[in-house]
Amino acid sequence: MIEACMKINGYNIKVYSLNTVVVGTGAAGFNAADRLFGFGQEDIAIVTEDINGGTSRNAGSDKQTYYKLTLSGGEADSVGELAKTLFAGQCVDGDIALCEAALSVQCFMKLVELGVPFPRNRFGEYAGYKTDHDPRTRATSAGPYTSKLMTECLERSVNQKHIRIFDKLKVIKILTGNGKVLGLLCINLDKPEDRDERYIAFNCKNIIYATGGPAGIYADSVFPLGHCGSTGIAFEAGVMGRNLTEWQYGISSIKPRWNVSGTYMQVLPRFVSTDQHGNGGREFLFDFFHDKGEMLSKVFLKGYQWPFDVSKVNKGSSIIDILVYMETCIKGRRVFLDFRNNPGLEEIDYSTLSNEAEEYLKKADAEFGTPIQRLLRMNAPAVSFYKDKGVDLSREPLEIAVCAQHNNGGLAIDKWWQTNIKGFFAAGEVSGSHGVYRPGGTALNESQVGSTRAAQYITGHCKGNPMDVETFIEQAGSLIACALDMGDKALSNCDNVEDVQNDAAKRMSQVGAAIRNIESIMDAAQKTRYELDNFENIVKISSAENLYKVYRLHDILLCQYVYLMAMVDYINNGGKSRGSALYTDKEGACPNNLPGMFKFRLDNGSKADLIQEAVLKDGKCEFSWRKVREIPKCDDFFENVWRSYRENGNIY
């Protein structure tokens, strides 16, 4: 790594020149750096705005899942079978599915060796369980904080290698030219008021982008507070998006942000709606359900079927999500889970539940008492979690909403996790490796596989030094000047950045989350486009200390615009309700007792083998559709593979 300096727009800017920069310090980012070093590429550094932030370190669930090849028992499994399961998620490229399957054991065992306490039996088998969309028992877990444990173990490995980490640097511009990476521009969060320290640039051949999902575009989000993602500036730099319409949404608590899946629902809590001041509490589920046993059975199923699934609205548990959405996003009320009292404020007749719910609660010895008593019996750590966060479920209700939980789409990648921009790789949730559905826990596997594949390709195919600093300034100088100019124009004696961001996020949650309407989406996209076109006149900040918020808002608006327009394009191409999104349709059918605005038609699978791709050019979105790449049929005859590998290492 070489340090130099340049002067642009009156700013003295440090420039670090090196082979590869990894952006992000979650499970994907740390693994990318660790793998690069291990494979022999040591001219690297990590850039992060907060080493202790991000989803990997700060998110989880009652039993956070890691998905991989079966490693116990006598159940038949193979790389090919796992690839087929991933490919069956719709809109998934087969070569990427095969890579995720093939490297799942290698990446899982590395985590084991680093100290992640995945459970195994006395014979050394890593026992598994069945997760959603999983035909085997491939899932495993190290508890509620699986991704946190992964991140901590990977961080220790990185620190042992003395890989340099630039903390408190927020990437505000991805520098590209002629379809390849030039570098990055960052704002220094530690010294924003010092004009000679405010901005730092990186001149590099490669970037592994591991910034997580674009959480900041939604107000109702289970992503950790402060995690916003940085997908918008990638679109601005010319990086292609893929499957942007495909998200997962689910019922989550707001303070703290946490998935209320699994046992939280299986203990049958009371759903209460209030006004904005917490008054006028009422059990709104009874407005829809006239059979209490059916209502409680649907609530129980939410534990298994936590993500909102439009195919489970009519006969499954996802009707619960819609009823919560109606209270919060349409009526403007607040919704709480009350674990202190039974629904209807009376004893539960367990014989009225579905056979599945009754048998489960009976086996758990939990057919008694109140929800909190049942929760303590079935999963006491679930109660302790909230108590540690300042919420005592035995004394107060828990506020919830239908929240964005995971983006299945993202930046378009090839089988080496490289995007359409040469030298720019995307790993973790920011990459679009998944489709409409995915087995629970595949995100953690992809974070390790994707970062490993990117590191392999860089060390085998993208070695060498970056361009000299003079050439870097010549090619990237105007892009840097433009970003500096944005910051200068935003500085004023007033401050409206957070108000604009909050309004934009609320708008996105209302029209671009689980419930989507073409007219509302187009109206929101038009408003977002107006704010982008007039950004320098609208957005103001009163101090350089908070200047990073201006760049964050610009990234969020860019991202929102592309995602909203992707939804418009999907509908205009005949797309119907699928996955975690209900697209309203006047010609469709409406679940019983719901307002006509919820009429919809289910997708018939006609687009299951098509991938929507998006590019932002000159402020406008361009979309294309293509067939998925099928799972490759490889020549697995060992002698042929061995000879080819020895002679030319043609894994690239």
Cα-to-Cα separation, first versus last residue = 26 Å
Shape: globular
Number of helices: 20
For the biggest sheet, the summary is: 8 strands, mixed
Structural class by secondary-structure content: alpha+beta
Radius of gyration: 25 Å
In short:
The protein has 652 residues and is α+β, with helices and mostly antiparallel strands. It contains 20 helices and 21 strands. Helices cover 37% and strands 19% of the residues.
Identify the notable features of this structure and list them briefly.
alpha+beta, Flavocytochrome C3, Chain A, domain 1, Methane Monooxygenase Hydroxylase, Chain G, domain 1, 8-stranded mixed beta sheet, 5-stranded antiparallel beta sheet, 21 strands
Description:
By secondary structure, this protein is α+β, with helices and mostly antiparallel strands. Among the domains are: 248-404, Alpha-Beta Complex (Flavocytochrome C3, Chain A, domain 1), CATH 3.90.700; 491-618, Fumarate reductase/succinate dehydrogenase flavoprotein-like, C-terminal domain (Methane Monooxygenase Hydroxylase, Chain G, domain 1, Up-down Bundle), CATH 1.20.58. Helix content is 37%, strand content 19%. It has 20 helices and 21 strands. Strands 1, 2, 3, 6, 7, 8, 9 and 17 form an eight-stranded mixed sheet that branches. A five-stranded antiparallel sheet has the order 12-11-15-14-13. Strands 16-10-20-21 form a four-stranded antiparallel sheet. Strand 11 (247-253) and strand 12 (258-259) form a beta hairpin. Helix 17 runs antiparallel to helix 19. The radius of gyration is 25 Å and the shape is globular.
